[in-house]
Amino acid sequence: MIGVDLVYIPEFANQKKLGGDKLLTRAFDDSELSGSLEHSAGIWAAKEAVIKAMGNPKTEPKEVKLKYSKNGQPSAMCHKKSFDVSISHHGDYAIAVAIEVLK
Amino acid sequence: MKYNDFSEFVGSFSGYGHRTATTIKPFIKTNKQTYGQLQKNVYKTANYLIGRGVHRGERIMVVATNSPEWIELFLGCQLIGAILVPVDSRNSIETVNNFIIQTAPLMIFRGNYVLPKLDRTKRTVILEDLDELINDYHDVAPNIKLDGQDTALIVFTSGTTAAPKGVVLSQKNILSNIEGVKKMINIDPNWRVLSVLPLSHMYELTGECCMLSAGASTYYLPTIAPLAIAKALADYKITTILAVPQLLTLFKQRITQTAIAEGQEKTLQFGLKIAPYLPKKIKRMLFAKVHKKLGGKLAIVITGGAPIPIDVAYFWENMGVRALQGYGLTETSPILTANRVKDKFRDTQGLVLHNIELKVAKDGEILAKGPSIFEKYWQNPEQTKQTFTEDGWFKTGDMGRIDKGWLIIQGRAKFVIVLPSGLNVFPEDVEAVADKSKDIKEICVIGVKTEEGEEVFAAVISDKKDRAIDKAIKDINNQLEDFQHISKWQRYEQEEFPRTLLLKVDRKNIQKWANDREKPKIKAKSGQKHSDEPLIKIIRLSLNEPQVAIKDSDGLADIGLDSLKRLAVLSMIEEQLGIYIPESKIDKHTTLKTLRKLVAKGSHTQVNSKRPKWQFNKVIRLVGVAFRATVVRGLLRLCVKIEKVEGAENLNGLDGPAIYIFNHVDSFDVPVVYKALPKKIRDNLAAAAADDVMKRHKILTFASRLGFVAYNLDRLKMILPSLEYTAELLEKGWSIAIAPEGHVSKDGHLQSFKSGIGLLAVETGVPIIPIKTFGLAGTLPLDKKWPQKFSHVTVRIGQPLIIDRHTSYEKATKRLYKAMKKL
User: Fold this and answer.
1) Closest by alpha carbon to B171, among B194, B143, B145, B190?
2) How high is the ipTM of this complex?
3) CATH 3.40.50.300 matches A2-101
4) Residue B265 needs a FRET pair 20 to 30 A away by CA distance; which of B226, B355, B367, B404 works?
5) Are the C-beta atoms of residues B548 and B559 closer than 8 Å to each other?
6) How confident is the model at residue B215 (pLDDT cuts 50, 70, 90)?
7) Which chain A residues touch B719 with a CB distance below 8 Å?
């Protein structure tokens, strides 16, 4: 399955501000906690894309674990399924695509 | 005490040398500062500003949340005669840019998380970096003679469209107000004050100066979320808060709701009924449960900014907490009248300060004179002229009477809308924006009373449909500051508004119409429970649509809550209502009704999680050390022999708390690490243990608490509280042993580190010492009950690392990982 998600960064910033620390710990693993706003928005988009690719909307964003390879390429794991992920941002938008890697 | 200038004010800190002046917890670590340190930092700041070329009369802007650095900057400016322009950090970037154009500041101090796109030139620095910037400067008072007439502040009063007015306050204005307030309210040096209102508002700034001049201790809270405030009250045993009435109303609602939820409503009501006849001590005993939640020490709340609703004031008085109300304006630095601690509660704005003269004009407007009244508006002689009478009295714009020295406010001459938060909305500002709308013929903005105070209401004349007007109002709100948003509107069914003799819109008449109008039907019909309100508010906040109507049957996606907004809503429910709902419980089909049910039956998250503390007890420690020397040592000897400890010399000179990180290969690694460390260190070492493991093995948990001062580290949920607790232990002088891999490595290979360790290293700034054991893996694997082999172990201790506080958590984690790998 494949999933895509587009994030409008100012809106993401607004919701992040409203949700505060609680939102961060709910959505992100501690290894994903630091980084710039664009970076976090990208991670969020990636998680949403993976959840869409899972086909199960009840998946919690935190269950999606994002990893970066040595050359900076992201991939994700969720419920023992693995996904290839691609993230990009430009200006006010961040976008991510996820596709399940079949073993 | 009277101060002639701010150098005397700052000089007086010497008298309180070792007392704590300021406390703040920016993230997980608490920073305390004594009066002696504060004084030195103020002097350094003044010298730093001189070094940056700041001269007397030059403007400095600060846009940041409250912090000790904020106060250092303010006082530093005053010592060299520079003018501080404090700006509320909640302003939009356009507004702040407008202030920058008007005041042309030489430097701008921006808070770390405030308006990142603001003025990216070299004159802008991060306020939180101040202590670093001033480090190399002299900590002696700069030799600059001022005469007290110097301008101290330019404080902008709200308004975006009508040019905002900058109130120019002199040093004399502020110092005389401090003197006046202190004569009225005896500040006890043992007060512990919570600072929640923005320092950019005179009420908080002058209030804070009063506290400093009395030697009291202030705790700064960067957020104003109710749960954070409740936690701070409890953590710091706060005695006093300066607050806006809104906060007290909110706490009153919560206390009542909790009582209802616990089936104690009748008890609470009965208590409140008999309380007025009881002495204060008994009142506090009667409401001991409530007081316990508030930290047990809260004794005085001082309110200002807006009048406190009388039922709220009585509620607190009946609980045994003094509710003191004051009155003033930014233009008056700001206090004109205040209630005294020693008096019985009465519903007035208080007594006039000794150095202020008040009188009531013929039309009922209150006029003021005195040394703390401002001189002028910044670059606005026209406004200045209008604000004073011909014989030099300041026109407050409020109507009232003075009864034997007590001021009673009865209304306002101007139609300023005072929100429960204390922010002022000028109807003209909102109308100026609304007049541009094509779909609205005429609009009149007024304040309408609600339970909590006033809200912004618009009477609209238009021939368009309701939906078009709704959209127009939304457009208007988008052009306004958040606090100025129109929260309700109603069609005025006439061709035009009633006018006064001078042909101005008759606001009084419309206000009466608005207050008399039928209340919206939703409330009466469905009989919504009071507790629903916060939930709706949270949803509206997330949607950024203050007046959107939401029905019970609406699905969350239908009302526009996408997954991110749903997450923000859940986070806010957790933060503000203290109720934890997992994300998996809701999705886009969840209706408001279901969400409401979840909130109603949701478990309250613990504000202070209960952690066992007995293992830190001194006597227990003696037993623990003995336990380690006998039982643990005996067991260890059966299966492990430590052959060599390498690098012990790296521990020389380490004195004070540190974090010891070790590779996680076996159940025995904590005992081995303890044994390898010198007695001086290991007797002060606490081991972090995974919460989920601790919960499964009761006996092991008990033994590790006793022997290794183990405490729970939650690695799955609630990571931040665990890290906070770790930082607390470090502050108390404990060193920490922690395995940053999180899980035992089955093959003995080093796995990647959890970034929590990087966060701890950066935020606490203590030395990190990597310790690696060789040959231990497989001795007693976690899943086995009995030792599998006898091991010969080498322990290698690395050099201590200190991570710079500007490092990102990820980088810090990587550095620590490399250091461990290299060992």
Assistant:
1) B145
2) 0.77
3) no
4) B226
5) yes
6) very high
7) 25, 30
